[in-house]
Amino acid sequence: MKYFTAKNSIVRKIWGSPDTVLFIFAGAAAEFAVNKAVDWLYFTGRLPADPLGRLFSTVVYSHKIIFSELDDANRAIDQITAIHKTVEQNRHAQIPDWAYRDVLFMLIYYSITSFEVLQRKLSDAEKEEIFDAFYRVGMRMRLTGLPQNYKDWTIAHEQHLQNDTLFSDFTIDLYKQYLKHLGYARYQILKQVQILIVPEKVNQLLSLGQVRFIMPLLWMYKLSRKFKLGGVVIRMVLPKAYRAQVKNLQAA
Length: 252
Known about the structure:
The protein has 15 helices and no strands. The protein is mostly helical. Helix 2 packs across helix 11. The protein is globular and about 45 Å long.
């Protein structure tokens, strides 16, 4: 039986850890807000109505692909492509390939930075393995212009950040929605986590600033894992509606 990723893959270790997935989610929430294609997410109305749910669905789909048998993973990727084709038909326009690449690049980047903040530094081989998993997702989606290896990806990623990000009215509205749905305390924690993991360009656009109070919380967070108290932290950080979903993102 062949799986999309090997059972001993570093990709599975990263995406099988709920706390790491939370950090990936936080990073994507920041970068979606400044991506030039964010208007596509507003087109259906789902993003402003439920920003956490809409962004979290991207994480859930990624998790499903990573832990599925190869045929099931490919069907899930094809389903994602079909959903976006429907949106394109409704809007009578085409989502540019660079926008799809940006999402893949986010998943690669935040898989790496989130794991390194919470766990340890990754080797070059492990980073290559992370790149390869999402490269295969992009190939299945028939995307053009994908870099061929991790080294080329680092160059392409920087170019995408420079070309495809800006601060806009969508940015302002999306962060207002984050505040509304998270509440003040969780919203402040979200921004502090984002400071730890987002690229400098994204930090500058969002004016996130410097780390203030997150380091003691991060230390407590890591300590809680050793004593199997991660569920307590999840309850502190996430609204009730999303706690069960995060807990289900365990290694298969």
